[in-house]
Amino acid sequence: MSLSNRIKQHFTTSIEVQIKTITNLEPQIITAGQLMATCLQQHKILSCGNGGSAAQSQHFAAEIINRFETERRALAAISLTTDTSNLTSIANDYAFENIFSRQIEALGQAEDILLAISTSGNSPNILKAIQAAHAKKLRIIALTGCNGGTIAKTLTSSDIEIRIPSQSTARIQEVHLLIIHCLCDIIDQTLQQD
Fold this sequence. Notes:
By secondary structure, the chain is of the alpha/beta class. The chain has a single domain (28-189), classed as Glucose-6-phosphate isomerase like protein, domain 1 (Rossmann fold, 3-Layer(aba) Sandwich), CATH 3.40.50. The chain has seven helices and five strands; from the N terminus they run αβαβααβαβαβα. The protein has a five-stranded parallel beta sheet, sandwiched between helices. Helix 2 packs parallel to helix 7.
């Protein structure tokens, strides 16, 4: 396959996954965004992920603390992927699986939200983060892919899973980013109306 055709295939499959996602998951995206907007009026959102999902966790927190596309007050969000001293000390003293759950034990409060991002739905440290969040009475918004993995089985009826209908990590990550932008826009639009 030529490089030109490979590029076209990337674009085409990305568009196809985006269309499948909006067709099947629009209500979950709207509900998640509204839940986040309500939370941010008095509480905070913690976010976490690994690799590319860690970068998206940080991207989300930056959009919330600073702004997305409209002017508004700063809102409370913390990406649990950014403090290398915390990450390395927890991984060293306990286990890598605990790098997010330990921070949630310290920072999470009832009525906060955890945005948990995992393309496979099977990341052990994300699973432990969800368990710690449930123990602290946080609600979970999970961005997953594939078949939702173990995360899908861990969520409660008050949590929201937005599962991208793809087996490709690259396509899942692309749509996760688009959903993050949708969530930020919903937050901005909802808070402007209050």
